[in-house]
């Protein structure tokens, strides 16, 4: 008996779709976790840029309250993204105000769902998610639980980014509520150069490549070096 | 390459076809299934039918209710760009969610018998999704029961929305329907 | 009901786990009734293990009940589950029934009420196989009452005449969910390792199994859409 195929969305990351039967399952929730400098935001932007190219609607929720100008300048460093996407195919939405004032988790969640209902995106990014822990009243874990539950009521591929703390393999508070877990890591080669890696640790419903793959992170963007470890 | 406006425009142009037929199949790009279903629930094809019964299969009721609220109640028609579209009156749309074809059918029929008017139109939000949770036989049986309700005139019109993820379900749907509107190209 | 006379040396009735390579490691199968903790990090195959366990039961004419604590809509999880090649859709909703525990847990923190809720479904469905996946989430949702919950659960499990598989996330500070292990007869640990070429490998180990002579040590564990299996004899 052959299982019915899932609809899949191209990741926009060269070398990655082949690791996961052609793309991210649509819909699904993905955690991209890694330490500083591992390329989480770049990967998330590239994912949305691919959507824009394909005619899909994307939402980028920022929790750091970086103004749009900052994001545009950051994005324009990369060849894969067109500034004209912002405001149209990619809507840039600031969650900052909700995180500093009354910090009522319910209001943040309501606002996120309102935006999703309004724009009906195929792709959603929340970057970074883990900092929210310091900013809201009440249980951070419960908030994450509620957030992912709500995202799973909508038809979109949601990419959530998270910091990995030293000594952790992945953010344990998020690992079991997401469908896919992508780990970004880095180390020093014997020659002293910094190497970056991507690993798919889990992906529901998909036979995915396992183990770390070398990644190239440059002005061209995030590229998985197929077959290299 | 998706183009929401393109798809919606094709849908709008196809409205006369959809309004005339009793059994219609709309084939949509998988990522726009929600948009298409929403449009079909709200579009003025349901005149004369007391209620629209929306079988959203595996899309939760709450998100559909929110979408209807946002896009079909006289608010700015950002998505569909069609100010002439008549929003349905509150309470005109009943959503039923379910995974298993037999139970989904039973719940839907339960909704129908609740309505004061005896005739309703039915929109099935994503037929191919049924394939994840039901065997081919169950899906055949599901369509057969819809046919039954049409013959008994409990339902005046049925619109099936599907994508192309299951070739078998698509062929079953084509057998069932009198007209097809293909938006997936 | 099926003949469960796969009786081992200790005269337990045993049922097939559904996991290839596992039954020979434990005198032919899980004792009936008993409770098993399957613990592991993300992606080690816990949910697939639990589903395979229930599908085996369905094939053997047994009733299964799956409690999900994740509060995601059942359809979300089942869409992915349907991709596993061993899933027989005809069993879904019948020989394998699903109950969403997550929504209930968001509002109800009283351990007794939670277990009463579970017991209602168990009384109605009368399963021979039960899964709670994952059980560790309950700690986050009900906080200080977790210990009471586990002890209450331990008591009631004895009345339910079933083989219960509880799955648990492994946290960095402990080798497995220790509190849960106190109330289970069996603890199976799924873990990661690295192959010589730098690839990611998975392992299964039976850490403890009351009343059964079991194979010890880590064994290679395969996880894919075809299901999970223990590679006999390989470490």
Describe this structure in words.
The complex is a heterotrimer of chains A (229), B (185) and C (235). The longest helix of chain A is centred in the middle third of the chain and has 15 residues. Helix content of chain A is 28%, strand content 28%. Chain A has 229 residues and is of the alpha/beta class. The termini of chain A are far apart. Chain A is globular and about 50 Å long. Chain B has a single domain, classed as Rossmann fold (3-Layer(aba) Sandwich). Chain B has 7 helices and 6 strands, in the order αβαβαβαβααβαβ. Chain B has a 6-stranded parallel beta sheet, sandwiched between helices. In chain B, helix 6 runs parallel beside helix 7. Chain C is of the alpha/beta class. Chain C has one domain: 3-Layer(aba) Sandwich (Rossmann fold), CATH 3.40.50. Helix content of chain C is 29%, strand content 27%. Chain C is built from 7 helices and 11 strands. In chain C, helix 4 packs parallel to helix 6. The N terminus of chain C is likely disordered. Classes of the chains: A alpha/beta (229), B alpha/beta (185), C alpha/beta (235).
């Amino acid at each position: 008996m052959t299982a019915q195929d899932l609809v899949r969305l191209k990741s926009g990351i060269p070398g990655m779709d082949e690791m996961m039967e052609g793309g991210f399952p649509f819909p699904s929730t993905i955690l991209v976790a890694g330490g500083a400098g591992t390329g989480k935001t770049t990967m998330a932007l590239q994912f949305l840029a691919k959507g824009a190219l394909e005619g899909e609607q994307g939402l980028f929720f920022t929790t750091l309250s970086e103004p749009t100008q900052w994001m545009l300048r950051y994005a324009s460093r990369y060849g894969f993204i067109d500034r004209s996407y912002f405001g149209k195919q990619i809507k840039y939405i600031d969650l900052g105000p909700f995180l500093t004032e009354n910090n009522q988790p319910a209001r943040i969640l309501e606002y996120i769902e309102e935006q999703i209902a309004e724009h009906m995106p195929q792709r959603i990014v929340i970057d970074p998610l883990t900092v929210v822990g310091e900013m809201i009243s009440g249980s951070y874990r419960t908030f994450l639980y509620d957030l992912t539950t709500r995202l799973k009521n909508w038809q979109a591929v949601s990419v959530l980014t998270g910091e990995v703390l030293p000594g952790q393999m992945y953010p344990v508070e998020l690992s079991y509520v997401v469908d896919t877990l992508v780990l970004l890591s880095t180390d020093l080669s014997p020659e002293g150069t910094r190497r970056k890696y991507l690993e798919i640790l889990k992906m529901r419903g998909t036979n995915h490549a396992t183990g770390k793959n070398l990644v190239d992170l440059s002005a061209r963007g995030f590229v998985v070096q197929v077959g290299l470890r | 390459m998706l183009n929401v406006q393109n798809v919606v425009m094709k849908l709008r142009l196809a409205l006369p076809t959809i309004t005339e037929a009793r059994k219609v199949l709309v084939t949509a790009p998988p990522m726009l299934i929600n948009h298409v279903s929403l449009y079909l629930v709200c579009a003025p094809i349901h005149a004369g039918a007391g209620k629209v019964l929306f079988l959203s299969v595996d899309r939760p009721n709450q998100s559909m209710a929110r979408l209807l609220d946002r896009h079909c109640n006289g608010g700015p028609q950002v998505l569909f760009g069609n100010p002439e579209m008549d929003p349905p009156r509150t309470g005109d749309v009943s959503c039923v969610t379910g995974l298993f074809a037999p139970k989904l059918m039973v719940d839907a029929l339960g909704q129908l018998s609740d309505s004061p008017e005896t005739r309703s139109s039915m929109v099935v939000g994503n037929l191919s999704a049924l394939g994840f949770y039901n065997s081919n036989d169950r899906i055949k049986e599901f369509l057969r029961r819809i046919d039954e309700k049409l013959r008994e005139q409990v339902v005046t019109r049925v619109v099936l929305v599907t994508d192309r993820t299951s070739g078998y379900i698509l062929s079953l749907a084509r057998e069932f329907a009198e007209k097809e509107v293909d938006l997936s190209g | 009901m099926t003949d469960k006379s796969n009786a081992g040396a200790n005269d337990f009735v045993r049922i097939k786990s559904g996991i290839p390579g596992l039954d020979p490691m434990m005198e032919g199968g899980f004792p009936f009734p008993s409770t098993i903790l399957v613990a592991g990090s993300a992606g080690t195959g816990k949910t697939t293990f639990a589903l395979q366990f229930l599908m085996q039961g369905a094939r053997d004419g047994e009733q299964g009940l799956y409690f999900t604590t994740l509060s995601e809509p059942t359809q979300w999880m089942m869409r992915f589950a349907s991709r596993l090649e061993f899933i027989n859709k005809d069993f879904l909703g019948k020989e394998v029934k699903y109950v969403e525990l997550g929504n209930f847990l968001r509002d109800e923190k009283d351990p007794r009420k939670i277990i009463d809720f579970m017991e209602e479904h168990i009384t109605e469905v009368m399963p021979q196989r039960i899964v709670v996946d994952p059980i560790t989430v309950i700690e986050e949702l009900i906080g200080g009452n977790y210990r009471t919950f586990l002890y209450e659960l331990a008591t009631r499990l004895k009345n339910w005449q079933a083989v219960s598989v509880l799955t648990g996330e492994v946290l960095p500070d402990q080798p497995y969910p220790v509190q849960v292990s106190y109330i289970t007869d069996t603890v199976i640990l799924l873990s990661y390792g690295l192959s010589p070429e730098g690839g990611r490998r998975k392992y299964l180990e039976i850490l403890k199994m009351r009343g059964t002579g079991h194979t010890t040590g880590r064994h290679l564990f395969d996880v894919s859409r075809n299901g999970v299996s223990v590679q006999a004899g390989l470490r």
